[in-house]
Amino acid sequence: MRTKIKEIQNRLNKEEIDGIVVSNIVNIRYLTGFTGSTAELVILKEGGYILVDSRYWEQVHQEVNIVKPVLINGDINLFSFLKDLSKKEDFKRLAFEGYSFNYFKYKRLFEGLENVELVPVENWVEEMRMVKDNDEIEKIKKALKIAEEALEEILEIIKPGVSERDLAIELEYQMAKKGSEKVAFDTIVASGPRSALPHGKASNKKIYGNEFIVFDFGAVYEGYHSDITRTVYVGNPNEEELLVYNIIFEAQKKAEEVIKEGIESSFVDKVSRDIIQDNGYGNYFGHGLGHGVGLEIHELPRLSPKGNWVLKKNMVVTVEPGIYIPGRFGVRIEDMVVVGEEKATVLNSFTNELIII
């Protein structure tokens, strides 16, 4: 944690900024280890403060030892604290996370800090979070293992007559039973024509014969998320359905083969997208190929046509090509991979071959 705070302090010195207010609670957890739901973090060129209310006063002392806790009460809030601190430290420039400040919060800060330049910054912490350390990767692997084992458990109950919602409930129960803190996001179970909805949350629709079911779901372990998609088939797939599945299988495989340190994220997307396009289904793949995963389900970098991130060792990203034919069916397969110096390591152990039930 000290190294992470130090990296922010080095940037403050480089940018000639006196301090930064970190309001994104996920970024606060990343920098300090604090797991509460509400806090403000003030980092100075030397030292820093974490502001919490009475609900988290005991917790912050247990979890945080690299910045000084400050209790928010009737007399002290973020704005009064910064006003006093700015006089004590003689602030000239104070940064804040642009995406985490609404207008009213900015207005109060602006009115309370006379003669202090407020500097909105973007993705200072998010860019740090892109590259995972070994401990983070192990937690992500554990979250993925939980999710995959849960899917294995429910395969035997997938059959005509069962509803999407029933499958989602059982999947989520199995993840919780195996150690997931919560679901990583609203579980997607989309069957038949609904499988063409990229984010088709589980409904009351019942499973019929001869149709795809797309499962997109994830677990959370010690704050870190997993994200996996598998598409199974109930019945006997026809020629086009098998063709589309195999196109996606190949598009994913080829993309994973080119991932390594130094490659631009848009190139990885292009490799996969070109395969889908060359097979005549380019108009049915509308989203980016993948994204980073960690303390949040969607993090930087983005693997997309406009993605301009250069991949670095120990980034964890998803690879999830899909084809969605409205009113008919859809197919998506999603793996999680760790970027390496020479190649990517696929973290998944659950097969991405088509499972026919």
From TrEMBL:
Residues of the Creatinase N-terminal domain: 5-131
CDD domains from the UniProt entry? APP-like (cd01092)
Q: Which InterPro entries match?
A: Creatin/AminoP/Spt16_N, Creatinase/aminopeptidase-like, Creatinase_N, Pept_M24, Pept_M24_MAP, Peptidase_M24B, Peptidase_M24B_aminopep-P_CS
Q: Which domain of life is it from?
A: Bacteria
List where this protein forms a coiled coil: 130-157
Against Pfam families, the record matches this protein to:
Creatinase_N, Peptidase_M24
Which stretches make up the Peptidase M24 domain?
Answer: 138-341
| GO-annotated biological processes | proteolysis
Keywords (A to Z) from UniProt: Aminopeptidase, Coiled coil, Hydrolase, Metal-binding, Metalloprotease, Protease
SUPFAM superfamilies assigned = Creatinase/aminopeptidase (SSF55920), Creatinase/prolidase N-terminal domain (SSF53092)
What is the protein's given name?
Aminopeptidase P family protein
- Species assigned in the record: Dictyoglomus turgidum
